Amino acid sequence: MPVNPHLILRSVELALNARDAPAFISAVAEANSLIKFLKTQSRIPSMRLHAVNHTTGIPKAVLFRVLEESYQRSVAPEASRLQKTGPDPAFAYGELSLPLLYDIIQQAQLTHRSIFLDLGSGVGNVVAQASLQTGCTSYGIEINRFSASVAQVHQRVFEERCALWGVQSGPVELECGDITKSTRLKELLIEADVIFVNNERFGPALNQTLVQMFSSLKEKALVITLQPLGMSVHCTFTDRDIIKENIIPFCITKHTFHPGDVTWTYKEQNCFFYVHRVNRREHSRARCRQKISTILQTTRWPV
Ligand SMILES: C[S@@+](CC[C@H](N)C(=O)[O-])C[C@H]1O[C@@H](n2cnc3c(N)ncnc32)[C@H](O)[C@@H]1O
C-alpha cells in the first residue's frame, strides 16, 4: 500500500482545522485502511502484534488501551442510565479504576489456569480485565437486567478490540441472574480460585448468604471484597461470635486504596479492600481453642 502516512495525518489535521466533515471522514478512512494493511500484511514484524503470552503478561499500556476503548464504545454511552438505580442500595452501580483492579488482580496471583468469579459483575469490566490481564477463565453474574445487557454489548466490543489489537483474553462467561439462586454459580464456586465481590453497598443479609455459599470453596481460594465478610480466625472473639457462627474459615488481610480509585465515593479518607483466604485448618484450631477456654471458664475447680 504505497501511501505516505505523514500525508494522511496531514489531511486529517487539515480537515479537522477546516471543520470539513466529509474531508475528515475520508482522511480517517484512509488512515484506517493503512493501519489495517500494516497490521495484516506488513512484512515489518514490529507492526504485527501477536497473541499475548500470558506467562510474560500483556504490557500494561496495551491492556489499559484495549479496556478503555471497549468501555468507551459500549458502556460510556449508557452511563447516565446505569447510574439511575432503584431504591435498593445493593443494586447501586459503581466501578473500580483500571489501575486499582490491576493491582488487585496482581495480588490475587491469577494465572491462565485460574478460575475467577465476579459476583455482581455490573457491566463486565472486572471479568474483561482479569481475563485479558492474566488469561484466566472468568465468570460474572449480574442481577440488574440493564447492566447485564450493557455487559453483553461490552463483551462483544471487547472481543472485537482484542482481535484488532492482536491480543487474546481468557474465556469470559456472563450470566444475568441472582447470586443467591444461580445453579451455574454453585457449580463454579467449587472450582473457583479467586472470587471478587464489590459488596460496598450490599446489606448484612446478602453478605451473610455469601458467607454460607462460600462454605463450598476449596482450601486456599481467595475472596476479595470491599467490606469484610466476618471475623477472621486470627481475631480475638467471644462465645457469642462462636454461637452466632460469626467466625468464618478465612484468614483476612486489609488493604488500603485511594478514594479516587472508585466511582461512588468522594471521601477524603482512604478506602479498603479485604482479601479472605480459605483456611479451614486454622478455623478448626480456633474453634478448639475457644471450646477449651469456655470449659476452663465454666468448670468449678476444687479449692
Ligand atoms: C458496585 S456494582 C459492582 C460492579 C463490578 N463488579 C465492579 O466492581 O466494577 C455491584 C453490582 O452488584 C449487583 N448485585 C447486587 N445484588 C445482586 C445479586 N443478588 N445478584 C447479582 N448481582 C447483584 C448490582 O446490581 C451491581 O451491579
Instruction: For the record, give the distance between the C-alpha atoms at the N and C termini, rounded to a whole number.
Output: 100 Å
Per CATH, the architecture of the largest domain is: 3-Layer(aba) Sandwich
Beta-strand proportion: 5-15%
Biggest sheet character:
7 strands, mixed
Assign a percent range to the helix content: 40-55%
Q: CATH homologous superfamily of the largest domain, by name?
A: Vaccinia Virus protein VP39
**At the third CATH level, what is the topology name of the largest domain?**
Rossmann fold
Q: Which residues form runs of ≥5 with pLDDT under 50?
A: 46-51, 236-240
Small ligands present: S-adenosylmethionine
Radius of gyration: 24 Å
Query: Which overall shape is indicated by the principal axes computed on the Cα atoms?
Result: elongated
Mean pLDDT across every amino acid position: 84
The tally of helices reads 11
CATH C-level class of the largest domain: Alpha Beta
